[in-house]
Design goal:
Strand order of the largest sheet: 1-2-6-3-5-4
Shape: globular
CATH superfamily of the largest domain: Metalloenzyme, LuxS/M16 peptidase-like
Strand content: 15-25%
Radius of gyration: 24 Å
Helix content: 40-55%
Distance between the termini: 66 Å
Number of domains: 2
Largest sheet: 6 strands, mixed
């Protein structure tokens, strides 16, 4: 009788390919592009309507986030309570999501009930009213939440880092404040809604159990949208701040370290290699920074390196919260890891490990139509074509140690980084 060897793990098999499923593309009668991913066994459909209406299109700071939150809090015909009750009655879910670039209105519904909840969706898209009492509650709650967040060193460090990378007036660099929240008026919301929620800057992603009836309902709702007024991109010049900012606090245990620099968006030719390089450096549990500063030295519970990519720009960052007594040594070790990537080729085994990790993540991202739609949405809203996904996969599969070292020499020079320290040892 054969015994299972519980000491020896299964062999690692390289993932040779990952590809997007078939995407059905069409346009509504008013010209809005639709990306459809079908395939759900359950009779559930997801509709995600995305407007490029974020900070780069604001005429007043913080307005895009407020509109995203309040757009479903009352229309000409329905109060926020009535909207919630009707959505709940049909077992649907309606929510909004926002980031620095866009606003998303997301509806989950049983396919057979979509025609009953779609009028609410049309109301929100065309007749949102932004009631004053809802705006007042939003402002008060936002200020309270901000005050809580500002008590956290890691939150303050992130704000200062992005401010120093892009500038205090740049859409990707300015920070929220009580004054900015208090200064939001209903007229500001109406103006932004009328300018930035039309057909010229809209894309729709539908996934799940998509039928002809679902497409008809979509035409009867989103197909009725019109362009209200012109939307204008407003992106000022980058104004880089201090290379080193230290903010002492009363934290007796930790200091938040944030290190980073401006890079580029997903369309840049070096994005795939920087994605690979950043993962190797600090993007997974076995990364170099985690192995060094957590596993070997015990300076921190977690350290992470990543890329934040926007539509019009992007940046690289390293994030860690370390014991106050370890701040100087932590910075020294971070610098060591950056310089090592610049000076020494990565081994074939480590390249293989990172490649398989990334390919596994890509496979997981494409598990099911809802996840697939999210990948497609990310590509399209970041102004990348669908073929760019396959190109990205090819680049990851073909990544070489030489590619990684050249990118490190080009972008990871420690002397080019902006550093922010917030905490008990920030002096």
């Amino acid at each position: 009788m054969n015994r299972l060897n519980r000491i020896k793990g299964p062999a690692i098999t390289d993932i040779k390919s990952v590809s997007l499923p078939e995407i059905h593309q069409f346009k509504l009668g008013n010209g809005i592009p639709v990306y459809e991913i079908s395939g759900s066994i359950q009779e559930v459909v997801k509709i995600e309507i995305v407007f490029q209406s974020g900070r780069p299109f604001e005429s007043k700071k913080m307005v895009s986030k407020a509109v995203s939150y309040l757009i479903k809090e009352g229309t000409k015909d329905l109060t926020s309570t009535e909207i919630a009750q009707q959505i709940d009655y049909y077992g649907a879910t309606l929510k909004t999501s926002t980031n620095l670039d866009d606003t998303r209105i997301i509806l989950y519904s049983l396919s057979k009930y979509l025609k009953h909840v779609s009028p609410i969706l049309l109301d929100i898209l065309t007749l949102a009213q932004f009631p004053q009492n809802e705006l007042d509650n939003y402002i008060n709650n936002s200020i309270q939440n901000l005050n809580i967040d500002l008590s956290k060193d890691e939150f303050r460090a992130y704000r200062v880092l992005t401010e120093n990378i892009f500038g205090v007036d740049h859409p990707y660099g300015y920070n929220s404040s009580a004054d900015l929240y208090s200064g939001i008026k209903k007229a500001d919301l109406v103006d932004h809604y009328n300018r930035a929620f039309g057909i010229d800057n809209c894309e729709i992603f539908i996934s799940g159990h998509v039928t002809d009836e679902v497409r008809t309902v979509l035409e009867e709702t989103c197909g009725q949208l019109k362009q209200k007024s012109s939307v204008r991109l407003i992106v000022p010049d980058i104004v880089t701040g201090s290379l080193l900012t230290s903010i002492p606090t009363a934290n007796v245990h930790q200091t938040a370290i944030r290190i980073g620099k401006r890079l580029f968006n997903r369309s840049h030719e070096d994005y795939p290699v920087m994605f690979f390089l950043t993962t190797l450096l600090g993007g997974y549990f076995g990364s170099r920074l985690m192995t060094n500063l957590r596993e070997d030295k015990g300076y921190t519970y977690s350290i992470y390196a990543g890329l934040d990519d926007f539509v019009y720009d992007g940046y690289f960052y390293i994030s860690a919260d370390v014991g106050n007594e370890y701040v100087s040594n932590s910075i020294k070790e971070i610098r060591y890891e950056l310089e090592a990537l610049m000076s020494k080729p990565v081994s074939a085994e480590e390249m293989r490990l990172v490649r398989n990790y990334l390919m596994g993540n890509l496979l997981n991202m494409l598990d099911g139509p809802f996840n697939q739609a999210q990948v497609v949405r990310t590509l399209i809203t970041k102004q990348c074509d669908l073929e760019s996904f396959n190109n990205f996969v090819d680049e990851i599969l073909g990544m070489t140690s030489e590619n990684v070292q050249i990118a490190a020499q080009k972008y990871l020079d420690p002397d080019s980084m902006i550093s922010v320290l917030v905490g008990g040892s920030a002096k």
